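Exercise: predict the fold of this chain.
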Amino acid sequence: MRISENSTRRTTYLPNNPVKKNMVEEECSKPSPEDAHTQEAEDVKGDLLELSAEATQRTKDINDELQEMSDKLKDFTNQLEVARKQSQSAAKSWEILIKCLKIAMRIMSGDIVPRADHKYIAKHEPEMYSKALTMRMNKEDPKKHKRLSKKEDESEKTEKQDSMEKDSKAINTLVPALDETLLP
């Protein structure tokens, strides 16, 4: 074991050494040859980890960088989740608007539109509904349309069921974790 004159040595005894448990020794000077021989004998007897001041500083720097990167990754994933939710809600509102436009076109053209579609457009776009009714044309042979809003109602129910299942799974994973933290 060699140590240069300018270096600082830090010796840490690891916990599985029964004699010198958790002892930390710091030396700032060059050891004598006798101390070096004694130190080598101790290395054989117990687990010993020697790090220079530069190595410990480098380790701290690396750990700090890793923590910083981990924090940035968490922030980025949170931002992605928020953006995903916003895009989903925007897409949902566009789908509703498109359905309302289709229903309004059917009403204005004088075709027969199911009562559920009338309620759907009145609920989501009341101004569009009133304008469609005022602009309605009379047809001699109106076309009878199938319900457009039916798909929305079913998909809404399945989305609610899916979200409830996800919530229950999340709760089931959190409950054991809480039990572990609360138990002594």
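Check your answer against the key: The chain has a mean pLDDT of 75.
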